Amino acid sequence: MLDRVLEQQPGSFARARYRTSVALRSLPQVLLVEAVAQLSGVAAVERHGDGGFLATIDRANFGRPPLLGDTLEIEARVIKTFGRLCLMEGQVTVDGEELLQVTLTLGIGPL
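^ thats the sequence. predicted structure below, dont judge the formating
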């Protein structure tokens, strides 16, 4: 769900881009949450090889659905960590218009 990671500060923040394509026909909004979860893993891990898993979706506010040809700007930020869990905030925008604002909990390491 990520074409390119544009910026990364391990353990803190990441920003990426994804361009919707005709191959998808339509992009279900729940996949926006998946994109933020994937990028959250990139933002949260501090060592190469650390795996992660989505533990909870705490809150998700959706705007309009993405349209074919949209270039999605995806951001994920670590809010706080507790043990191997990270509270994350993320958003997806298109040309400054917010399509998703989400708070989720990510686990780092094996299940």
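The chain is about 15% helix and 50% strand.
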